[in-house]
Design brief:
Layout lengths: L15 E3 L4 H8 L39 E6 L3 H14 L2 E7 L7 H18 L3 E4 L4 H5 L6 H22 L4 E4 L9 H15 L2 E2 L8 H11 L10 H11 L26
Parallel strand pairs: 2-3, 2-5, 3-4, 5-6
Antiparallel strand pairs: 1-4
Helix pairs in contact: 2-3, 2-7, 5-6
Length: about 270
């Protein structure tokens, strides 16, 4: 686990609202961790050992698994990217996982709603709390059309991850992390560097996991569970880039180029 502390303040927090799991969703705002009621309950093929090389905590027959002693706030970009990390972290048994869906980069509004509902359904089925913050901020991203793709992506990561780090600090979590770490189509090194920087400023540890080897397993679990799987990264500019690529363009708004990019490929390869 990576996490460093320093004296810089965390800034203002984001407003949280219940993600639809009743008391469990409200628990995030209070910083309370809620242990899983059974990883995978009610979702697809959950009984088929979904954890890959991450085994569940060992307990004696008839003995309840130990309640995690520490609390983790997990930034959730979408249901398909969350399903494997959520179950794997629950299986590790070290942290009680709470989710925070804060993704103003997802456009248009109906797409934001579809991804949010997918995340809510997953966390409800897993018996874990999920808070919702913010909404669709398409206008702000439209204003960034003149930025390079690199600049846009870093701005997007920082906006979301800063909010999660602040919320974790304000609500007494021991660590924060993000489901973005599972996607081979995201800028993994940049995400990690930003989170480590935010950890120093917020005095909350950053829990690093490289979930990329389990990306396709996570997509399979999401497909089997019937969770909506998106076909582009998220922002309206990436949607336009993808449309331009599909039409045979070599440019598109925001700097898309020929060949495979972060926003190209089949549905199961997309991440928020």
């Amino acid at each position: 686990m990576t996490g460093r502390s320093a004296g810089r303040g965390g800034g203002a927090g984001v407003a949280l609202r219940d993600g639809g799991a009743g008391a469990a969703g409200a628990a995030v705002a209070a910083g309370a961790g809620v242990a899983s009621a059974g990883a995978g309950a009610g979702l697809g093929q959950a009984g088929q050992a979904p954890y890959g090389r991450m085994p569940a905590a060992q307990t004696l027959p008839g003995q309840a698994p130990p309640r995690p002693s520490r609390k983790l706030l997990l930034h959730v970009c979408c249901g398909p990217c969350a399903i494997y990390p959520v179950r794997a972290l629950a299986a590790e048994g070290e942290y009680a996982v709470s989710g925070l869906f804060y993704n103003p980069n997802i456009h248009p509004a109906d797409e934001h709603a579809r991804r949010m509902e997918g995340a809510k359904a997953l966390f409800a089925a897993e018996g874990l709390p999920l808070a919702i913050a913010g909404g669709c901020e398409q206008g702000a991203w439209e204003a960034r059309a003149r930025m390079s793709e690199d600049e846009r992506c870093e701005t997007c990561y920082r906006a979301r991850l800063s909010a999660v780090a602040r919320a974790a600090a304000e609500r007494g979590f021991d660590a924060f992390s993000t489901t973005l770490l599972i996607s081979p189509y995201q800028r993994h090194g940049l995400i990690r560097a930003i989170c480590e920087e935010l950890s120093e400023g917020s005095r909350v540890a950053f829990l690093y996991r490289d979930f990329r080897p389990f990306f396709r397993e996570g997509q399979r679990l999401a497909r089997d569970a019937g969770i909506y799987r998106q076909k582009y990264c998220g922002c309206i500019l990436s949607l336009r880039d993808r449309a331009a690529q599909s039409a045979g363009s070599t440019g598109g708004t925001g700097g898309a180029t020929k060949g495979k990019t972060r926003d190209s490929g089949p549905a199961e390869e997309m991440a928020t």
